[in-house]
Structures are given as C-alpha cells and as structure tokens.
Please model this.
Amino acid sequence: MNATTASPPLPLWPSNPPDGIRLDPEDESIDDRTTPGRGLSRGFWHVHQPTITLMPAPEARATGAACLVLPGGGYRYLEMDKEGHDIGRWLNTIGITAIVLKYRTRPNPSPEEQWPDVMTATLNDAERAMRLTRHHATEWGIDPNRIGAIGFSAGGSLATSLAINSDTGDPKAADPIDRLSSRPNYLGLIYPSARFMPDSTSVMPPVFIANAGDDPKTPPQGAVKLYATLLELGIPAELHIFREGNHGFGLGSHGGSVRNWTHLFEEWLSDLHLLDRQK
Model:
C-alpha cells in the first residue's frame, strides 16, 4: 500500500452490527460548511454504516505506533474533516498511522429514550475498531502494543468510555477479531465531554488532556475534574488548559497559543517512548 494514500473506508462489521441497532440509510446526509482558505469542513449526520479509514504513516517516518481517531459532533453528526482526516494527516507527520473511525450517530428523529442505544452503538463501534486494528497490525505495519485513541468533544467522551469499558478479548469467540484486546495503549482527549469518569475498577492507559479556558460547550472544569480523578487513581495524566480557543479548535490552525497542543502531545508521546522507531 502507498504509505501516503488513505485506504478506501473499511466496514467495521461483516454484516449488521450484533447490537441490532440500525439506522435508516436514507437519513444519512452531509452538511458542507467549507469556507475558502480554511480547508474542508463537513458534518456527517445520522451515520448508519460505521467504517474505518486507514491513513498509513509515510514509510520514512513510520514508528509503528497507531492511533484511532474519534471525531466529535455531539453524537448527532461527525466532524470528519477537522477532527478526523485532518488529524490523521497530522499524526502521519509524526510517524503515527491513523485509523479514522466513522461511528454511528443519533437516528433522525432522536427522542431522548434512544440515548442508551446510541451510547451502546458508539461504544461497540469503537471497541470493534480497536480490535480490527490489532487484527490487521502485521499487515499495516503496526505495533499492537502501541495503538492509542484520540477523541475530540463527544469523541473524547467516547475515547474515555472505550478505555473504561475495554477488555482483553474473548479467547473463545467464534470471530477471531473478538479474541483481541479493545484496550487503547494511550489516550488523547481534546476538549472532551466529561460524560464518563473512571473509577477504581478501570484499567486506564496514560492520558493527555487539552481544553480551552473559554470553551462554552465542554468547559475546562470537566477536564480538570477528569484530570483530578485520574491522579487520585494513580493513572499517569497530563493536562493543558489554554486561555483562549473556544470549542472545536481542532489542530488550532487559526492561531493563538492553543495551536501548541499538537507539539505538547507529540512531546508527551515521545516521553512515553511511543514514537520510538521499530527495530
């Protein structure tokens, strides 16, 4: 495979998802909010067919590390560009192979009683994506012990839920993919929704958190609470609160100190030896 070209989207499930939660394909739509000079900006609404897109790191830079990318959108839609493919391209520049997850979102219409089903569907998709990545690790040139997840906004809460609910796989499962671990080896939580909190039973990897102090949608107090909880549980964590950035700053390419989160995340990964080249 050409190391600079993303693969076609790969379906997560061989047929219908086992949770039985299906959406109407006619409801899926794309809201194009692209403005000149700012790159693509599209919202994918009412996603019914979950997929992953492999974005391999260039061979000259590849470290063997990989990262599952979880875009945000309030579980209603997905920011597949600035919190998905743009993130994947940046991860490639630091030697990380990206796997961008297009997970199921809320049906249309979406009454509140459907929220438990939505949470189940998104978690199942994230767990399946992590197991599927490990299943293809050798083929994709990935170290199965260096696969993390990075999530933005609602994708951050999904990444947290993935880590909290992860397991090492079912050795008796008929599907060989289900025999593999769903546990991420590291987490990046960028302006995460603090919907889920780990407890003493959680097996959590090292966590990096970044938030803007003026974020009106996921206020920094949630990030601070999550950070404090991780410290109390003895889980290695790093927190950065930037003075400005609002919500949804993505790579921070529109300026301000918030743009430095990518460098800080790279340094954090390096400190953990996750960017060491495979020998």
Remarks:
- The mean pLDDT is 91.
- Helices lie at 81-93, 115-135, 137-140, 154-165, 220-232, 261-271.
- The first strand starts at residue 10 and ends at 11.
